[in-house]
Amino acid sequence: EPEVTQTPSHQVTQMGQEVILRCVPISNHLYFYWYRQILGQKVEFLVSFYNNEISEKSEIFDDQFSVERPDGSNFTLKIRSTKLEDSAMYFCAGSLGNEQFFGPGTRLTVL
Amino acid sequence: GQSLEQPSEVTAVEGAIVQINCTYQTSGFYGLSWYQQHDGGAPTFLSYNALDGLEETGRFSSFLSRSDSYGYLLLQELQMKDSASYFCAVRASTNTDKLIFGTGTRLQVFP
Q: Is residue B18 within 8 angstroms of chain A, CB to CB?
């Protein structure tokens, strides 16, 4: 059964550095998403991506964030200048019908 | 604003039945989903209700009342492996299918 994969599983970075989180969604999904979850808190929507462009973004997804699907398979989330409060678990997801399939997540730690 | 409220924690014993409630207030509503998340894991889909009533999937059932902005997840014949966090999530847009997640309920099942 196909799965969403994400790399790396854990990323440690210094404040102010750029990070790129990578995802390989399931190929027949149409919509792709990034969510984040601060430790012990709820999952928060960041951005949705359809037909190679952003379809919706949340207030969290400010100018420091960007998404790309550079080669038709990988789906990336870039944070240009990380802040301490960006420390969280970042999940990529794809949707097929009423169900969203989440990847295993990348734990981002900003020091 | 948008909010989905759930009890923070529920405890039960193996074999018991437990109900996790969710009340929501969102600007858009196109359905209510439930996701399970084990510690350190990704959210996994359990059920979806677009219309009022009860949906049954094995040991798990989900109920929705749109007029009351309320739903619940019913877990029967509890097993130790059901110990996890459970999130309700509103499908808040038909354009993007983004999910707005609830605060989450931590279920602990004791032998």
A: no
Could you tell me how far CA B7 lies from the centroid of its own chain? 11
Mark yes or no for CB contact B95/A99 under 8 Å. Answer: no
What is the rounded average pLDDT for all residues in chain B?
A: 94
A85 in helix, strand or coil?
helix
| Interior/surface letters A21-59, b for 16+ CB within 10 angstroms, e for the rest | bbbbbbeebebbbbbbbeeeebbbbbbbbbeeeebbbbe
- What pLDDT, on the 0 to 100 scale, is given for residue B93? 79
| Residue B26: Cβ within 10 Å count | 17
Q: How far apart are CA B50 and CA B69, in angstroms?
A: 12
Q: What percent of chain B has pLDDT over 70?
A: 99
- Closest CB to B87: pick one of A33, A42, A98: A42
Measured CA angle at A15 (ends A9, A17), to 5 deg: 70
pLDDT at B97: 82
* Partners of B70 in the β-ladder: B23, B65
Q: DSSP assignment, residue A82?
A: -
Q: How far apart are CA A103 and CA B104, in angstroms?
A: 19
B99 Cβ under 8 Å from any chain A Cβ: yes
- How many pairs of residues across A and B have Cβ atoms under 8 Å apart? 57
